[in-house]
Every structure is written in structure tokens, then in C-alpha cells.
């Protein structure tokens, strides 16, 4: 892999860095305390093209390769993981799935709005009774003439209360394929669909995470995306790329933690000199630096494989597993460097740690990533 960035990639990174410094960084504490990111950020993300990265220009995409997408995602993760998550889900899981699996009509209906930021998308897979074992979801879509009638509950849905469309995974009665799961693009203003914001999250407090309840939600059969019974394949292909996006966000968290720790260590004095002079503080910092580099290289390798059209799913799981655990370690080390000040939210380390923690849980927990990697190596499924 060529580790030298192209001009386009460098420009994308610079644009993202400037965007984060101008539009995100000044509001991070306020949004975290208010438990809500200012929604106007979505339109701004669309205006700079971040919601259309890697997609064709035909439906509003802004092009770019997956490495550029990683670089932008890293920067957003450095700024605020709640903002990064808006892009990773609305673009990464929803718009990209529509671009790969949707009909021309579905692409025309949703992609221009999702890439411009006029619409927000959410990804409805997890249920109260089906998390890691998503294949056993129980939301049902029952065919009734030219319609489907949907009943069920989705849990922990990122962007859930903001979304205009949910990419919903449900068991459709007569589906012949994998476990009978199909994908549907359900407008969130459809009668019978109600949403409840989930409050009290440890991290990602600014993000609109919701429970979605479907009670006799009637949709035309044309909202089904991809052939009936292919829903699980749609979900798994979205998550394979999504894990790279989470990993890139984690690189951003770890980088932010490292930057903050280095700055603080070279300013804060104890025992008559800056704490950077103490060897055990340098150990905390050097461990973070190695984690940042290793996480970044694993993540870039995934982007490179995708851009070259090669298999990447196992590498994506490795990157997500390592980068999420590395982000937790790095943020925790940063908090240690800040001492007591790390424990209050006027300083960045605490929020970075709270935000990092969920990265080891969603889009497949660390245990699930290990099972994915183990299955690829041994040929034995231990699920
Ligand atoms: P469980 O599956 O019940 O797992 C509990 C524990 O058991 C974990 O430690 C797990 O690793 C372990 N475990 C389970 N099975 C095995 C096994 N076979 N071997 C070893 N260990 C195992 N979902 C969406 O669909 N869309 C979203 O946008 C979305 N956003 C989220 C945002 C947030 C803030 C959060 C917290 C979650 C989000 N999720 C979303 C859900 C997330 O993907 C699930 O929480 C995750 O998949 C784990 O499922 P669970 O919480 O039900 O835990």
C-alpha cells in the first residue's frame, strides 16, 4: 500500500480539519451537556460534501475514495464522535446501501436529500431481544395486497429521532432467503411509527439515539430494497464498511487524546518541572502514540483494499476491534495525564473516554469481531 496521500486526499483532510475547528470544536462541551448536537450541523456537513463521500455525482455524491472518507472521518472523530456518527450512519450505512442495493427510483428519491443534508437516515437493525444475534430479529413485515404492514421495535438507533428515512430490517413472511429478512426504506412520517429519545447515555450524549416502535405501519411494497430475503446481506455488507468508519472515528478519538495529553504534559508543572519530565507520564504518552499509529494503519489498509476492489471484511473487523479498544486506552491514558482535571468536562479527556467506550459495543461488540476474525481464520463459526 502506498502510504503517501494524494493531493485530493490531503485536501479532503485539510477541509475536514478546518471544518471541525470552525464548526464543531467550539460547541463540543455545550452539545455534550445539552445532550443534543445543533441540528444545523447536518446541513453544513452536506454543504462541504462530507455526506456524499465516495458516492457518484449523479445523485449528489461528492466522489472521493475510501481513504479520503477515512481521513474525513478521523477528523470528525477528533472533533466530536456524535457528529462523526451522523455521517457514518446517514452516509456510511444508509446512503451507501441505497447506492449499492436500491432501485433507480429509490436512489432518486433518497440520495440527493441524504447527500445534501436535507434528509437524515438511520439504520434499524438492533431490537430489544436481538443485538449481537441480529439474525434473530423479530420485527415482522406482513404482505397485504400491494402493501406491507410492519410491527416491531428497534432499539438504540443512531439518528433515530432526527431521521427522515429508516433503513429497516424486518422478517417478511414469504421471503425465501437468509432467515427471511428483508430491507425496507420507511419514511419516518409514516403513521404508526413512533420514536422515543434514549436519554442518559454514558457517551455520544449529543447524538439522537432512539427507540423506534412500529405499530401496524403500512407501506407500499415498493419500499422494499433489494430482493426479498436479501436483507441480512444488505445489513452485513453495510456493517463491513461501517466498521472501517467506526475504526477511523476511533483513530480520531485517540489522536485527540494524544494531542491533548502532550499539550497538557508540557505545560502542567509538578515537583518543580513540567510533568512531561516524569518518565511514567512519558510512558502514558508513548503508549498512546503507538496505539494511534497502529489503529490508523489498520484502518487505512481497509480503505486501500476497498479502493482496490479486494476482500476487506475481516480486515475491517480487525481494524474496528483494535481501534475501538485503542481509543478507550488512549482516552483513559489522557485522563490520567490530566489528573483530577481529566475528571471534569471542561477538559477533553473525560468526554473522549465516554465516547470511545461505545465503539467497543456497536456495529458488533469486541467479542463479535473476534468471532468474525476467528471464523475467517479457522473456517469454524463459533457464533
Ligand atoms: P448483547 O448482544 O446482548 O451482548 C451482551 C454481551 O454479550 C456483550 O458483551 C457481547 O459481546 C456478549 N455476547 C453476545 N453474544 C456473544 C457470543 N456469541 N460470544 C461471545 N460474547 C457474546 N443498532 C442499530 O441497529 N443501529 C444503530 O444505529 C445503532 N446505534 C447504536 C448507538 C448506541 C449509542 C448504542 C449503545 C448501540 C447502538 N446500536 C445500534 C446497537 C448495537 O449495535 C448493539 O448494542 C450491539 O450490537 C450489542 O447488542 P446488545 O446491546 O443487545 O448486547
From TrEMBL:
What residue stretches are annotated with the Acyl-CoA oxidase/dehydrogenase middle domain?
122-217
Q: Return any one Pfam family short name.
A: Acyl-CoA_dh_M
Q: Which domain of life is it from?
A: Bacteria
Stored SUPFAM superfamilies:
Acyl-CoA dehydrogenase C-terminal domain-like, Acyl-CoA dehydrogenase NM domain-like
> What protein name is recorded for this chain?
Acyl-CoA dehydrogenase
Name the protein family. Belongs to the acyl-CoA dehydrogenase family.
Q: Which residues form the Acyl-CoA dehydrogenase/oxidase N-terminal domain?
A: 6-117
Q: Which cofactors is this protein said to need?
A: FAD
Amino acid at each position: 500500500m502506498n502510504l503517501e496521500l494524494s493531493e485530493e486526499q490531503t485536501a479532503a483532510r485539510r477541509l475536514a480539519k478546518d471544518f471541525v475547528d470552525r464548526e464543531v470544536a467550539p460547541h463540543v462541551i455545550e452539545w455534550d451537556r445539552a445532550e443534543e448536537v445543533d441540528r444545523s450541523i447536518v446541513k453544513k456537513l452536506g454543504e462541504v460534501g462530507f455526506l456524499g463521500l465516495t458516492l457518484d455525482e449523479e445523485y449528489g455524491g461528492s466522489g472521493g475514495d475510501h481513504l479520503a472518507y477515512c481521513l474525513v472521518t478521523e477528523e470528525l472523530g477528533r472533533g466530536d464522535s456524535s457528529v462523526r456518527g451522523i455521517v457514518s450512519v446517514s452516509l456510511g450505512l444508509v446512503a451507501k446501501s441505497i447506492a449499492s442495493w436500491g432501485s433507480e427510483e429509490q436512489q432518486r428519491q433518497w440520495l440527493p436529500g441524504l447527500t445534501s443534508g436535507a434528509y437524515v437516515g438511520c439504520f434499524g437493525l438492533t431490537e430489544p431481544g436481538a443485538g449481537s444475534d441480529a439474525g434473530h430479529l423479530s420485527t415482522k413485515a406482513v404482505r397485504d395486497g400491494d402493501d406491507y404492514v410492519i410491527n416491531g421495535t428497534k432499539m438504540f438507533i443512531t439518528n433515530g429521532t432526527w431521521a427522515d428515512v429508516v433503513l429497516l430490517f424486518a422478517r417478511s413472511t414469504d421471503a425465501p432467503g437468509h432467515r427471511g429478512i428483508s430491507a425496507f426504506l420507511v419514511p419516518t412520517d409514516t403513521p404508526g411509527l413512533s420514536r422515543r429519545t434514549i436519554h442518559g447515555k454514558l457517551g455520544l450524549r449529543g447524538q439522537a439515539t432512539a427507540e423506534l416502535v412500529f405499530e401496524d405501519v403500512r407501506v407500499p411494497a415498493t419500499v422494499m430494497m433489494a430482493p426479498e430475503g436479501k436483507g441480512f446481506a444488505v445489513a452485513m455488507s453495510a456493517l463491513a464498511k461501517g466498521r472501517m468508519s467506526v475504526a477511523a472515528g476511533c483513530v480520531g478519538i485517540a489522536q485527540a487524546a494524544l494531542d491533548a495529553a502532550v499539550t497538557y504534559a508540557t505545560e502542567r508543572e509538578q515537583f518543580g518541572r513540567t510533568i512531561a519530565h516524569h518518565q511514567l507520564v512519558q510512558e502514558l504518552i508513548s503508549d498512546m502514540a503507538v496505539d494511534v499509529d497502529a489503529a490508523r494503519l489498520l484502518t487505512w489498509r481497509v480503505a486501500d483494499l476497498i479502493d482496490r476492489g479486494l476482500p476487506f471484511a475481516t480486515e475491517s473487523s480487525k481494524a474496528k476491534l483494535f481501534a475501538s479498544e485503542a481509543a478507550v486506552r488512549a482516552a483513559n491514558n489522557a485522563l490520567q495525564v490530566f489528573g483530577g482535571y481529566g475528571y471534569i468536562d471542561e477538559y477533553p479527556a473525560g468526554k473522549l473516554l465516554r465516547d470511545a467506550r461505545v465503539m467497543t459495543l456497536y456495529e458488533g461488540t469486541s467479542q463479535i469481531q473476534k468471532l468474525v476474525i476467528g471464523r475467517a481464520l479457522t473456517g469454524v463459526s463459533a457464533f
